[in-house]
Write a structure and sequence with these properties.
The protein folds into three domains: 14-127, Conserved hypothetical protein from pyrococcus furiosus pfu- 392566-001, ParB domain; 142-232, KorB DNA-binding domain (Arc Repressor Mutant, subunit A, Orthogonal Bundle), CATH 1.10.10; 277-328, SH3 type barrels. The chain is 46% helix and 16% strand. It has 14 helices and ten strands. It has helices spanning 13-17, 28-33, 35-38, 68-81, 105-113, 129-138, 144-156, 161-168, 172-180, 186-193, 200-212, 214-222, 230-262, 265-275; strands at 44-47, 51-52, 87-91, 99-103, 118-123, 278-284, 287-292, 302-307, 312-316, 320-327. The strands form two sheets. It has a five-stranded mixed β-sheet with strand order 1-5-3-4-2, sandwiched between helices. A five-stranded antiparallel β-sheet has the order 9-8-7-6-10, with helices on one face. A hairpin with a 2-residue loop joins strand 6 and strand 7. Helix 7 crosses helix 9, helix 8 crosses helix 9 and helix 11 packs across helix 12 (214-222).
């Protein structure tokens, strides 16, 4: 709502802010009904009591930006300097003469706390539900949970992940990683909700490990003092791979002992020599891999390795540690 200065003498700024000079506007209701009169214009002083917060905005009430201490700090700056960046609102579709906030809920709340009656605002009716997410993402204003909840709502309406990623200016992998948060295994969900980690990438790596060996990951998470970081999960994966290889070796030994007791070891060995192949299990740094013996390296001191994800690469043998031998 703007104050139309029709007098010849310019009114002092303080006087303009008191009541907005509404007594000089003869037909206020018609002005509020006229959407074209304000939409797309510059910033104006708008009465706070005419504005409603958006109940569908992506930030929840427990978002750190809405904490009482944060709003109080912002209110103090508004008392001293005012609101320097206008908020954005749109015309309320159901309540004549009212507006809904697009962007600026924190400034709106802090202005009320600071005792203000008006706030500078733009009217922008060209608004989509993704606009608030875009603004908050670019300034890291949303938690991982709030981002995933928004993505979940969009998917529930039939939108594709690629379209959601495009609408908020993020990569498809960003969307996929946050989708994982919507259906976490219970032990990982407990750790995430407890705030032990907020790194979405770490959570995804932990979920991948859990799907392979749930008991081991669950036991690891039961240690409440255990840090959940990329490096600690990498160490966990290395430990689980070594354990898997040891268990595989123990199973082979038990099978051999049983065959010996039955007196069939000679026959088994004769057939196995023709059918089985030797696999060399190694570690490249901390990454488990298989040594590819059927692929010739480009130079001495190198060898081809095949990692868990199926990728093959040529590496220096000096960085390769032999872990175990097995037959397949």
């Amino acid at each position: 709502m703007t104050h139309s200065n029709t007098s010849k003498n310019k009114q002092p700024e303080k006087q303009m802010s008191v009541g907005l000079g509404l007594s000089k506007i003869t037909n206020l209701s018609s002005l509020l009904r006229d959407k074209t009169a304000t939409a797309g214009s510059g910033p104006m002083l708008m009465v706070l009591d005419m504005i409603d917060e958006d109940p569908e905005q992506p930030r929840n009430h427990d978002n750190p930006g809405f904490a009482s201490e944060s709003i109080e700090e912002l209110a103090e700056t508004i008392k001293l300097r005012g609101v320097k960046t206008p908020i954005s609102v749109r015309i309320h579709p159901a309540s004549e003469g009212r507006y809904i906030i697009n962007h600026g809920a924190r400034r709106f709340r802090a202005s009320k706390l600071a005792g203000k009656t008006t706030i500078p605002a733009f009217i922008d009716n060209d608004y989509s539900s993704g606009d608030q997410v875009i603004e908050n993402l670019q300034r890291n204003g949303l938690t991982a949970r709030e981002i995933s909840n928004f993505i979940g709502r969009e998917m529930a309406m039939g939108k594709k992940k690629s379209d959601i990623a495009k609408s908020i200016g993020k990569s498809p992998s960003f969307v996929s990683q946050h989708v994982t948060l919507l259906d976490l295994p219970e032990p990982i969900a407990d750790a995430f909700n407890a705030g032990r980690t907020n790194d979405v990438t770490v959570i995804n790596e932990l979920v991948t490990s859990y799907r392979k060996q749930p008991k081991e990951v669950n036991a690891w998470l039961q240690e409440e003092t255990q840090e959940i970081t990329r490096s600690s999960i990498e160490r966990l994966r290395g430990f689980m791979e070594e354990q898997r290889l040891r268990d595989a070796g123990d199973e082979d030994s038990e099978t051999d002992d049983h065959s010996n007791r039955k007196g069939k070891q000679a026959k088994k060995t004769a057939g196995a020599k023709q059918e089985k192949k030797l696999s060399l299990h190694v570690l490249f740094g901390k990454r488990p891999a298989l040594l590819v013996v059927t692929k010739k390296p480009t130079s001495r001191g190198k060898a081809w390795l095949k990692f868990e994800d199926g990728q093959e690469s040529e590496e220096e043998l000096s960085r390769v540690t032999l872990v175990a031998l097995s037959e397949t």
